[in-house]
UniProtKB/TrEMBL annotation:
The lineage of its organism: Bacteria, Bacillati, Bacillota, Bacilli, Bacillales. One of its GO terms (biological process) is bile acid metabolic process. It comes from Metabacillus sediminilitoris. The gene is fabL. This is Enoyl-[acyl-carrier-protein] reductase FabL. SUPFAM superfamilies: NAD(P)-binding Rossmann-fold domains (SSF51735). Its EC number is 1.3.1.104. It holds the Pfam family adh_short_C2.
Amino acid sequence: MSQQNKVALITGSSRGIGKAAAIRLAEKGYDIVVNYARSKSAALEVVEEIEKLGVKAVAIKANVGKPEKIKELFAQIDEQFGRLDVLVSNAASGVQKPAMELEESHWDWTMNINSKALLFCAQEAAKLMERNGGGFIVSTSSLGSIRYLENYTTVGVSKAALEALTRYLAVELSPKNIIVNAVSGGAVDTDALKHFPNRDELLEDARKNTPAGRMVEIEDMVNAIEFFVSEKASMVRGQTLIVDGGRSLLV
């Protein structure tokens, strides 16, 4: 292992946007921590793909909705790498139901993974980032944080909390030279979207009504993440960048 390589942790990186972000950062020379909650085989496939790029990668299982698991995750990162330079807080989940049908367990599950995880991951990440003079934290959000989406109550509210937390973390971590931002995407055709009862409607809307003339692709989100973990974004702090081809500008 090269001690000189910077290290990036991408939560929920066994598939979708997280996987693509992990591969992009590996291409940039980062050693990668692939975090997953369930599919070890998928995570190991990502590790294998990354190692072919000539950098180190490890897969670490952790449900980031549980603070004790977050501590274990970061303890392993410290043990194996001794540093962390980038955290992409990407893992997400949620119960797709109308507000009047939600139960407490639905609320807690979604808020824990989508919002609470960023707070406690950031706390642990900051401890490692300080050792090397700072770092970058980027979280992934969605348009449901600022507008109504059918069956999206728990996720939308959790993402709104995530974006607010991004602002607070950006201010409080700036003295440590840790830069915190978020990327919010329009409808992206990933595995996560398969859980939406109205998936087909969302995709059709994105295809027909996005001013840019096409729907958002995974790579569009990764481009924004890559920008936010670069020095080019050093004076952008606490912001949520909407990557939706202009869809949110229309009714």
